[in-house]
Amino acid sequence: MNPMPEPGIIISSGEPAGIGPDIIAAIDPGRFAARLSVIGDRNMLQSRAAALGSKIEFVDYADGVIAANAIAVIDHPLGQPAIPGQLDCDNAKYVLGLLDYACRACLEGRFDALVTAPVQKEIINRAGISFSGHTEYLADICNAPKPVMLLIAEQLRVALVTTHLPLRQVADAINQRVISEVIKILDHDLRNRFGIEHPHIKVCGLNPHAGENGYLGREEIEIIIPALQTLKASGIDLSGPYPADTLFTDHMLTDADAVLAMYHDQGLPVLKHVGFHSAVNTTLGLPIIRTSVDHGTALDLAGTTAARPDSLFAAIDSAIFQAHNKFQDAPGA
C-alpha cells in the first residue's frame, strides 16, 4: 500500500488587526504532517512574527511547491497598514480577498483543505459589504445550498440546524425540510470525512423539556418528531428529540457520534465549556474541507504574546484528518 500523501493546507490569516497573524506566528510546521501555506500580507505577517519573537520561517509560495518545515506565503497586500487591535474598514476587502483566493484554490484542487483564522463581521458590514459569517460566505463561493456548522471539542461534536440568527427568528426558521437537509448532510459527512461507519445522531428539542408533550411548545410534536421519523425510515440512525439540559450529560453522550442542536446558543456554550481553547469549527455540506478556530479576533490580545494558538493547531489537525479520509475514499486508493 502506498503511503498516504501529505495534504496541502491553506490558512487564511483573517482580520489583520486581530490575533490571526499572532497565532499563525506560533505554528511549528514540523509538528504537522502536511504542507502548510498561509495567505496574507507577507510584510505584515513577518513583522508581527518578529515583534512576538517567533522563529517561524516564511517562504514564498511558487508553482505549488511548499517547503518542508516552513510555511509558504501567498502574498496578498493589505488595503491599509494594520495596527494590532485597531479595526480599519479599508481592510475589509482584503479579508474577503483572502477567503476568495483560498476557497477557489481548494475548489481547483491546488489545496486539500482550508483553515480559517478569525474575522470581524462588524468591520466588513461597516464597510458596506453584507457578511454574516465565514460559513455562509464560503457556501456562496462554492455554490453549496446548505452549509452545516459542526463544532468539535474533544469527543463532543455538535451540529446546528440554524446558525447566525437572532433568537426571535429561530423558531420560524425550523421546519421539517431544513431539519432533514441538515441531518442528511451531517450523516453523510460523519461517514465520509470522519470515517464513522454507522453514526448515531442525538437530536435536541427546541423548547424547554423538549416541549413537555406540547405544554411548552408544539414544535417537537408538529415538526421535529415527524422529520426524525421520516429520516429513521430511510436508514439514518437517530434518537430524540431530547431536552437539551439533560442531553449534554456524560451518560447521555456515551453512544452519540454527534448532537444536533436547534440553534447556536443551545449547543455551543456546552461545547466551549468542554474545550474552549481546543475547539474546532468545520463546515459540512461544502465540496471542500474547511475548518476554523472556534474563537473571535480578540482585538485586546492582538500584538501581544497572550493569544493561545491551541484552537488553530486543532483546526489544522482536523483538516489533515479529514483530508486523509478523502484520500482513502478517492478512486484507486
Overall description:
The chain has 333 residues and is α/β, with parallel strands linked by helices. It has two domains: 1-144 and 286-333, Isopropylmalate Dehydrogenase, CATH 3.40.718.10; 146-279, 3-Layer(aba) Sandwich (Isopropylmalate Dehydrogenase), CATH 3.40.718. The protein is built from twelve helices and twelve strands. The chain has helices at residues 20-25, 42-51, 92-107, 121-126, 134-142, 167-173, 176-192, 219-233, 244-247, 250-253, 264-275, 310-329; strands spanning 8-12, 35-40, 58-60, 71-75, 113-116, 148-153, 156-160, 200-204, 237-242, 258-261, 280-284, 290-293. A twelve-stranded mixed sheet has the order 3-4-2-1-5-12-11-6-7-10-8-9, with helices on both faces. Strand 6 (148-153) and strand 7 (156-160) form a beta hairpin. Helix 3 packs across helix 5 (134-142) and helix 7 (176-192) packs across helix 8. The radius of gyration is 20 Å and the shape is globular. The relative contact order is 0.18. The mean pLDDT is 93.
